[in-house]
Design brief:
ABC transporter transmembrane region fold; Rossmann fold; 2 domains; 63% helix
Length: 607
Amino acid sequence: MFREPNYAETVTTSTASKSHSLGILKLLITYLSPYKWVVFKSVIAILVASLAVLGLGQGIRVFIDQGFGTEGFTSLYEALGLMVFLIIVLSIASFCRVYYLAWLGERVVADIRFKTFNHLLSLSPSFFEERGVGDLMSRLLTDTTLIQIIIGTSVAIALRNAFLLIGGLLLLFITSPKLTFILGIMLPIVLVPIIFYGKRVKALSQGSQERIGKLGVFSEEIFEAVQTVQSFVRENYESQNFKDLIESYFEKAILQVKARSFLTMMVMMLIFGCLCCVVWMGGLDVKAGEFSAGDLTSFLFYALLVGGAAGAISEITGDLQRAAGALSRILELLNTRSNLEELKNPERLISLESPLSQEEDKIVPFFSFQEVSFAYPSRLEDVVIHEFTLDIYRGEHIAFVGPSGAGKSTLFALILRFFDPLSGNLFFQGVNLKHLSLSELRQNISWVSQETFLFTETVQENIRFGNLEATEAEIEEALKTAQAFEFVERLPGKMNASIGEKGGSLSGGQRQRLALARAFLKDAPLLLLDEATSALDSLNERMIQKAMENTMKGRTSIIIAHRLATVKKADRIVVMNQEGRIAGVGDHASLMASNPLYKNLVELELL
């Protein structure tokens, strides 16, 4: 029985919804705190704009009571001047409000995207096994865009209307304490549905965002496999599947829209119903001579202002709930921790460039597997590597061979510590991989994967990815070693030629040669080649092997290959069976004589 560690990334979540909401608030404050002066300026601009709007009510009162009084035109002009002044202040404050909050929204979202992207790069491949790339892209782009809109627009509306609501209520109280008291009694009738029904809006919003992520996953998969879809004539089939997902998203979105619309309708009805009652009572006071015409007008102005502000806040609550849903999805990613633990004070490798004596080479394994067993996180019941033990010495050229599914590529993933084994340990120069920092381990390994991946960049940028400090001459040398220089020279723009998305404008063999050049440029002490020449013809493969003989002198390499010519050149060949166990180790001649599995693979050309 093997110990089965929890490969799933651990997510720090609160058991209580209040704690989760507090986490969202802390996240937002964390990203806003570096720009507290901009936040301060935004709040001041909102406050000044709100005061200017509130001042308009007093300006209206003065305009009616004094402008149309018996004092002549002087009072009318003074009242008009006050109104113009307030309008100018309101306009300037509105400009500052829009600019500063839009800047904050863009800046905070840029910071969130950077931190989220940077954090995702630190997670182990087991996380990406269980998460669709489309879902991650939805969170990184769509959810953060929603946050930007909320900070840049919705928060401004909410704050401005909150100030107007408070200021309007205060001025209503000054104008008529009795009517304001009645209005205050009615206010909870409006607030209760906002608080309770808003929770439903938030839950529906989060579900809607998750469906957007599923749409992204599906779309990306289909577009990447478009040739397969078209070759099987499954365009209509996949279109129908996409339509089903769209309809599912639409139904969820409509539920959210209905909830928000119902909330807005209910709140607006309650607000203006309350205002009608209050205005009716105010009209009775005017009839009784307790109000002037200007007082009545300003009271009506503030009543409408308070009603509009409360209505706007109720409507914007839905947007804020949507933002809370988006932030919770971002928070989930940021709270995800990699299952590949690193020591705070990791051990260091000795200089891998320093020469060792022949005696030391034979005593100290350069890399070793000790009773390693492994199963992928998504299927722990299927152990693909069983008790694998092997010592590899410095300067050796090792070949892994075996039938498909024997776990050869999996061993490379363990060497690079993309995963940790179920049991056993791996050692690099006698240091347990778990005691090394991931960056130091991987910096000393060059890897060419079975599935060649190139970036949507120029040839030069793709090769320089192996060594960001490389000169143009070093890049050319790596291209020549990989037998890629000639075809690169024929490209329009040569090394500055764009190769299309994921190298789509190149053939499989050309992409493979560029991947080899990138690995050669890194010039790491340990080279891992996983079917790195499978797309090349025999002539180019022989030329690359010949060029590599000088490049790899004194360096250690492990290859996975099916071609006999490649395997025969290895110092030792490790034969693996279907269970992921070592079935034999030796050179070509000894294995042909003593290992039936190897002999069978050679005869069937299944190496």
